[in-house]
Design a protein that fits this description.
The chain is an alpha/beta fold and 309 residues long. 54% of the residues lie in helices and 9% in strands. The chain has ten helices and six strands, in the order H-E-H-E-H-E-H-E-H-H-E-H-E-H-H-H. The strands form two sheets. The chain has a four-stranded parallel beta sheet, with helices on one face. Strand 5, helix 7 and strand 6 form a beta-alpha-beta unit. The termini are far apart.
Length: 309
């Protein structure tokens, strides 16, 4: 019995080493992106920011898009951008076909874009819209769980209803969507990934996207230590989405952008808590939200002054 355990331990160690080698090879030899042409892709929070950029990227890859957002106007704006991409792609295909004497075939499908007004913080809204998508569009093959909100308050100054709203949209909504992949969201991703593996459902892939600060305006004003900031500026949304798209289309389990975030996650796992605190203070990460909070508070005070409150 003891010998079996020893042998099994070495087999496990070999598998771990092999996984490390394969992960390293993927850094050196970029895997080929899979095709999503014709696949139904749901994007939450598609009305702006990263959600809109994801929609445009999937449109360029000829996916059928289902856009969810709480704001109908901004969601329709994104949809029109997607339609324009579809039209440009069709025009280019026709031009190429004429140039080569009809050798290149016209795509056998015409992708479409569908818009739905959804509050992902309300489970009834999610359930009813999900069923409507199944009826009107078909089964969903890709889900980009992008929708998110930020409170803009210190915790002790944040009203209970705003805390609840933040948790519902940023975390709970992941459970009410079609169950694909913020700290609670990461835990959900990990637990669901293991559950899928244990059930041996090989057709379901998940990608966890962990970016650094993204310059979408959502966290405008967030600043780390000024001496460090030139080396770690906020990410351009376009760059962040390009990296995420690459990870999604190559079935990468997790993508950290920039790559130094991988080191941060690793060090958090092995270093004592006080060491992590020292690192955060050195980088200015412990107070990076302070300028953002100050801006939000000033904006609220200005609004209250204008309204005569």
């Amino acid at each position: 019995m003891m010998m079996n355990i020893v042998v099994e331990f070495f087999v496990v160690m070999l598998k771990v080493l092999w996984a490390i080698v394969m992960a390293g090879l993927k850094w050196l030899i970029r895997p080929k992106e899979k095709s999503v042409a014709g696949q139904v892709c749901v994007i939450t929070g598609a009305g702006g920011g990263l959600g809109r950029l994801f929609a445009k990227e999937f449109a360029r890859r000829r996916a059928t898009l289902v856009l969810w957002d709480i704001n109908s106007h901004s969601n329709e704006e994104t949809a029109e951008m997607v339609r324009q991409i579809y039209r440009e792609h069709d025009d280019n295909s026709m031009t190429k076909e004429g140039a080569v004497g009809g050798v290149e075939e016209v795509p056998p499908f015409q992708p479409q874009v569908y818009t739905y007004v959804v509050d992902v913080g309300k489970r009834e809204s999610v359930y009813s819209t999900a069923e409507k998508v199944r009826r009107e569009v078909g089964e969903v093959e890709l889900l980009i769980n992008n929708a998110g909100v930020v409170s803009g308050h210190h915790l002790l100054e944040c009203p209970d209803e705003l805390i609840e709203r933040t948790m519902v949209v940023n975390c709970h909504a992941h459970f009410w969507d079609y169950c694909a992949s913020k700290f609670g969201a990461i835990g959900f991703h990990e637990s669901l990934s293991h559950e899928i593996k244990a059930s041996e459902k090989d057709g379901i892939k998940m990608t966890l996207v962990c970016p650094y600060l993204v310059d979408t305006g959502m966290f405008r004003g967030c600043r780390i230590r000024k001496e460090i900031e030139p080396f770690l500026p906020p990410l351009r949304p376009e760059f962040c989405v390009k990296q995420a798209m690459r990870a999604i289309l190559t079935d990468q389990p997790m993508i950290c952008t920039p790559r130094i975030v991988y080191m941060v996650n690793f060090m958090k796992s092995i270093l004592p808590f006080e060491a992590i605190v020292c690192m955060y203070r050195f980088l200015g990460a412990d107070k990076c939200m302070y300028p953002f909070l100050a801006q939000r508070k000033e904006a609220m005070n200005n609004n209250e002054a204008k309204n005569g409150i």
